[in-house]
Known about the structure:
The chain is α+β, with helices and mostly antiparallel strands.
Amino acid sequence: xxxxxxxxxxxxxxxxxxxxxxxxxxxxxxxxxxxxxxxxxxxxxxxxxxxxxxxxxxxxxxxxxxxxxxxxxxxxxxxxxxxxxxxxxxxxxxxxxxxxxxxxxxxxxxxxxxxxxxxxxxxxxxxxxxxxxxxxxxxxxxxxxxxxxxxxxxxxxxxxxxxxxxxxxxxxxxxxxxxxxxxxxxxxxxxxxxxxxxxxxxxxxxxxxxxxxxxxxxxxxxxxxxxxxxxxxxxxxxxxxxxxxxxxxxxxxxxxxxxxxxxxxxxxxxxxxxxxxxxxxxxxxxxxxxxxxxxxxxxxxxxxxxxxxxxxxxxxxxxxxxxxxxxxxxxxxxxxxxxxxxxxxxxxxxxxxxxxxx
Length: 358
C-alpha cells in the first residue's frame, strides 16, 4: 500500500474567506470591531461615519446680483479730460482733451492728479470716482469733463489655478461676480475631471465643495472677491478594491456619495465563480478622537459585513456610504477552496477529470 502525504502545501487562492478574516472577531484580544450591517444598525453609523461630514465645512453664501465693481488699492485708472477753454491748464492748443494714463490707486485708496489735491476713490464705483474727480477739476477748470476706465489690480482680480480650459488671472469687472460666471469666462470645466471639486482660497480661509453642489442651486453660487484663488480638480477620495472581484486596484469616487453597492459596481462586480456574496466586507479606520466620543466608533478598526443574498443586506449595502480610504474586500466562497483542494488531490491521484465534474 502506498501512503501519500502532503506537507507544507497550500492551495493558491485569490482572496481569503470570510471566516479567515473574521476569525478573532469575538475574542477579547480582537483588535477590530465587527458590524453586521442591517437596516436596524444603519442609523448608528451616522454619528461616527467619516463620510457623513463631507459637507459640514463652511461655504460662502451665494445668490448675490452682480453690480458695479468697487475700486481698490492696486487698480489703475486711465482718464481722458476734456476742456473747451482755449487757454486750458490741461489740454494742448491743438487738442480738446488730455489723457492721463496709469493712475495708481494707492494703499490709502487715493489717486494723485495735476493741479488738484489727492482724490479718495477707494471704495467707490468707477462712475462715482469719475464724478468725484470731475467735481474737483471743475473748481479750477469749469468746463472740464472726465471719462474714466479702470484696469483691475490684484485686489480686484481672481486667479483660476486649474481645472478649466484657460487658467489664469481674471479681472473682476463686476462686484458680486458669481463663481459660475468666472468659470464660464475661463472656458468652462475640463471634461476629463471625475466628480469635479471646487476650492476657493480667500486669505487664510479655504472653502471646498463638489461642483455639482454649486451648479444645482443659485444660493450655493458664491460671489468671488478680489484676491480669491479658485482651483477645480477631480475628487481625490479613493477606496481599495480587493479579493474576488473583477478589479483589484485603487478606485476613485465617481460621485459625491458612493454606497457600498455602487462601489461593488465600480470594481466590476464580484466574480460568480469565486466570490462569497454573504461575505462582502468594508474595512475602515477611525481616529482615537472619533472612538473617544460618546457616540463614536467602537474601535479604531471596524469591519462592516454585508450579506448580499438577503434583501435587507442588498438595501443596506445601497444605503451604507463608503468613506475615503476604505478597503472593500470580496471574500472567497468556502466551496471554492474545497473544490481546489479536491482538484489538487485528484490531479495527484489521476482522477482530476472526475473531480472536476462533481
